[in-house]
Amino acid sequence: MSKPVQANQHGYIRYLLYIGIICLLVVLLVRQRATIVQAAQSATHANTGWLVLGIVAMFATLPASTLVYKVLSPKPLRFGRTLLVQMAGFCVNKLLPSGSGAAGTSFLYLRANKVSTVQAGAVVLLNNILGLLGHVLLFLFFILFEPSALGSLDIASNTVTTGIQILSVVGLLAAGLAILLRSKLANFVQPLKSLLTHPRDLLKALSASMLITLSYAVSLFASAAAVGVHLSLATAIIALSASVLATSIVPTPGGVGAAEAGAYTGLVAMGVNNDMALATALLYRVCTFWIPLIIGSGAFILVVKRGYLKARA
Predict the structure, then answer these.
(1) 191 is a domain residue
(2) Cα–Cα distance for residue pair 127/102, rounded to 1 Å
(3) Which residue among 21, 41, 260, 289 is least enclosed by CB atoms within 10 Å?
(4) Residue 20 lies in a domain
């Protein structure tokens, strides 16, 4: 089978998956319409001060992500220009699934700054790894700091065992995939090795990645406070983790539907009322999706106009 035919088939499968997800979301919305109406009413009466804090916390991720790329890039990057590119990534990231938009924008920006294709790919990959590691470290820190945050979770003992089994299977599949793709993965090994030889820079990048996760948690915390739901940061981290997990499992463009469902599920699991949990999730997405999408669109137009993503000879 030729590559174009395979690409078309994969494209059709992806679109069918998206259509199926959208249909499922529509069914869920119809079945939960009463709860959604009540949540929307609560959201319209949100406290403006807390909502502003949620928006500010979201935009605090910009200098943090800029710092990550400045530290990891093998070529010097201008802070202001990189900051604008990261803001432009807000727009693209909301239109593509699983954070691929921001990663692609950053990759093109690195290439435009004369970073080789392999090195640029390695930097983007390491950024994602540090983001995941930073999230896990923050999660563990807050759980250790406030173990009572898990007290309201209704988790059966066999759920933990099932989770370990699932993780084991996923780990084995990942290992098998890595073996099959070892020739392609080898292209990233050497650049990653060179990036890993500077522990101080890695610590800076990891700290900035943790700040990004913390900013998202504060945005969720503020969104809850805006509708009168008082969470701890540990609870916000748990609910945020559920949202991130949902967008990873169901990679809709911009996480639409999946992120809201994940945050809602996490909040309900922590004992928040259904209506208030949904209102919080909706406000959180206003802070982290709709407003950044609008502002990021303007930044993206400016970035393209100035040629920041165009490779130079």
Answers:
(1) no
(2) 11
(3) 41
(4) no
Q: How confident is the model at residue 213 (pLDDT cuts 50, 70, 90)?
A: very high
Mean model confidence pLDDT for the chain: 76
pTM, two decimal places:
0.76
Q: Are 245 and 265 in contact (CB under 8 A)?
A: no
**Which residues, including other chains, have CB under 8 Å from residue 133's CB and lie 6 or more apart?**
206, 209
Provide the domain limits for residue 73: 32-157+197-306
- Asked whether residue 291 is assigned to any structural domain, the reply reads yes
